[in-house]
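Anyone able to model this chain together with magnesium ion?
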Amino acid sequence: MANVLIIDDDQGMCGMMVELVKNMGHKAVYSTTLNQGLEKAIRGDFDVVFLDVLMPDGNGLEALATIREVKSAPEVIIITGAGTSDGAEIAIKNGAWDYLQKPLSPKKIMLPLSRVFQYRDSLKKKPRPPVALKLPGIVGSSSSIRERYDLLAQAANSNANVLISGETGTGKELFAKAIHLNSNCAQKKMVVVDCAALPESLIESSLFGHEKGAFTGADRSRDGLIKMADGGTLFLDEIGELGSLLQKTFLRVLQERKFRPVGGEDEIYSNFRLIAATNKNLETMAEQGTFRKDLLYRLQSVVLELPPLRDRREDIKEITVHHVTKICDRYGTETKGFSTDFFQVLQEYDWHGNVRELTNALESAISAAFYEPILFPKHLPMNIRVKMARASVNDSSVGMMSENLLDTNRLKRTVVPPYRDFRDSILEGPERKYFKDLMALTRGNVSEACRISGLGRTWLYKVLKKYNIEKNNISLDDSHA
Ligand SMILES: Nc1ncnc2c1ncn2[C@@H]1O[C@H](COP(=O)(O)OP(=O)(O)OP(=O)(O)O)[C@@H](O)[C@H]1O
Ligand SMILES: [Mg+2]
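re: yes, here you go
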């Protein structure tokens, strides 16, 4: 027997629903105000709450999330006299079971109600054992990445085709591997096909295999990548790069899991699980006619969109610590510590190459600081420091000239590197070019170079040494390369 709560200011309606639920063999109570209803929901042990939207003391939709979070986690069915599609969307996105528009016939109420009962019964009968998700090499605990872990688990539990999208370096391949590892075909292979790297002339035979004698050099028959994925996972990376002919062929392979090897007469079968990845917007490509819509629909039974790193900056520290430990292990050195401003720069930077750019930056910081125990911003690659230095100059000059000076939060976020670092990062490129040009113009004649530049010999030699410019071995072409 289930417990139902009805929250509606229409007493007649409440009476009718209580009667109906009791006739179905369950218990029901009601409240005619939102506050009273909320109180009952919190104290009671309800399986289902019927919730009206326009109540004298508030809007039911605003109470939806609270009701969903009470201990018994009841399913909420919204009932409203003033239904709108926006309201319905908000309700469903906030976890409502259904959204019903009044007037309500008994049938209209009973149908969703019996489905809820069925659903809650099934949960009681088969409590799902909490399965620990394996996330090899994946770190991050921001709410947005945790949502992706849920989707990952969902994808791994089903056999549906999965499309992983996201900017470059967001971890698409890593997530694909994790789906495979958590799925029931984990014992079998995951075959990776990089659609961007398939050599044009060998595409078909690489994918579909070939029979002996199918073309010059085919001295024996060979399985293609699709057959190799039989029983396991086929990962089509960069699927946006697939040409139109192959898109068509693939559609058929996905529909039937059957294909014909090059030079073969019979079709062969491969029962693979498909994961595809792309950093392109396939919807737009489909609109523009460069990607088949029917193929796109097939691919995206489950869609996993990975967020860019700049949208989940909370994860930067965790990812950094993880990779620095890994890299130091690989180098066989003690793991490094971090200066506070090191993290500050990492937090501020926009990481358009996402986690890959971050890991590359860490790799280069560690080799720059090889014998030093602490990582400082000066160890980071020059391009990152230059960008940050430039940004900090713009910020603080605007800040000084305006009331933004009072915006302490913004100023706290502003990165001010040590002056020498800043000056070097701004000057080094142009300065090196100046001296290269100077030496090229004077064909290595130091006296002439001193005359033109107005510098003394000692100074000039010092700079040439700093930039490793050989005075006799330089041409103008060289300097502009
Ligand atoms: N959540 C994460 N935690 C730790 N490392 C990560 C995470 N996401 C990505 N990485 C690391 O970032 C790098 C890039 O990941 P991956 O190759 O999976 O990205 P991608 O989205 O496939 O990139 P591309 O579009 O360029 O192919 C790898 O070194 C991977 O280990
Ligand atoms: Mg990739």
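The longest helix spans residues 419-441.
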